[in-house]
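Hey, resending since the last one bounced:
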Amino acid sequence: MILRSIHSLSCLIIIGTLTLYSSAQAQCVEPEIEEQYLMSTSGLEMVLPNEALSRGAGDWSLNEHLTGGLSPSRYLRALTLDLLGRLPTVEELGRLQDAQGILEMNQVDEWLSSADFAEQASRLLRSQLWNNISNLNLYSNNSGLSRSNQIYWLRNPARFTRGDRVVCLDQPATYDDNGDIESFEQEDGTIREGWVWVNPYWAPDTQVKVCAFDAQTSEFSSNGSYCGSNNGLNRTDCGCGENLKWCITGQVRNQMTNSLAESLDKLVASVFREGDSYLELFQERRFFINGPLVHFFKHHLRIGRYTLNPSPVPSWQLPDFDYNETDRWTQLILEGEHSGVLTHPAFLLRFQTNRARASHFYDIFLCSPFQPPEGGLPVPDEASVRNPDLQERAGCKYCHALLEPAASYWGRWTEQGIAYLDAETFPSEREDCLNCALSGSQCSNECRTHYITSTLLEQEVPYLGKLKAYSFRRDEHSINVERGPRLLAYSEITGQRLPRCVAQRTAEWLLGKNMSDADSTARDRQWLDELGIRFSRDGYRYSSLIKDIITDERYRRVK
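The structure tokens again:
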């Protein structure tokens, strides 16, 4: 009865938008399974070494248990919940019973090399990266299809084709002798055409009604605009293209953001499943792609509301996948200074400014969130407040003296977008951008988007014609822009902050409690320091760090 009442408690801990299974946080299981489990392991004896209480952290083996700590059966249960996200199997329970309550290390090694553990580890990192971008609308309003009376149509471009945001007539389209679409004036002053049948890319085996103007398939308009762009879709002689490839529905919009987030999850899981070195998270150039993402990078980069061009995935690398191949995944090797999770499109879209990207890195991987000092900041003088350089401005420099150089590591990835600016096409300074900035002539779209071409203050003049990432950058920080966030991660590895923070975050997951300096004891802080050092010496093997924690007396007691 007690077990059944416990079962009524919540079994899942929600972190952000995902569920992370942890025995330190979720102890609920099916009552029948729990009863069977306890009965099958009740005869196991606890091994109590005489010298147990005299040992230090890190000296414990899987075969030893502290007085008051977990029994072998409870220990097994905690491990499988934490590492695999499930209860022990019948085979695992029998194996433990046959070994007289001794859990073998090779079994733990098997768990840590399994797909289940890779999924648990990726869930942990997902909760830290916050890579849920389902609330983002990647597309401009021009490309969004509406549906009225089972007829698909483009709402915004209708102003130019029909004179107002109205749907076409509910009748088949007709054409004149020249093959042009015929329109008919209506009592409300609009001019409307009929519809045509189209096989849309998201359902190629079905036909849907689409307003004739919106179903046009021309690649370019009469004035040379590319029809698969935001500007092109406003042209009366442009439409959604063949099979509506340039337009989207709400379902397509959601599928794209979900696929981008899943792509990041697959990258993380592959690192833990294949390489085990935690550093691979920051140096991988692999990108996982499925059918929807292939369509996105082929046809949707110029209809977005974010800066998606130049594409981080070259067109020649895209596989020949259909949109509906949602579960078909392959991996590409990206060029340039791509840096694993830190430059993945899902991360870049979740944190859309370089400062936000750097700030989150410091918080999650260095355990050093940017916060004002205790007691607040001193009152600044007026001249200091007006300084445009945040690294020197009073009230800002406390954080920005560090944040600005850190943000520059993402300088070749566009803010509010995912575009990658390669050094050959986008050098640190471009003469044409400088000339148009100084002469007052019209600057190209590339110059306006990626380079500094205007200034409001005298202090900004030296940066005209430079990439935006170089604004108020010191000479010694130029390498940050060129080498990318991978260099940031490596610099923090040598300084030991990153390994120590990874140890802290992992301990917080497995122990189910906050281990920050403010919330932990001096003994715990020393233990975390030692964990980070051993993690480094073991080649940043995440499985070694996990084993270091689960064999510590803290893990046995907290459960």
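The mean pLDDT is 87.

Sorry for the duplicate.
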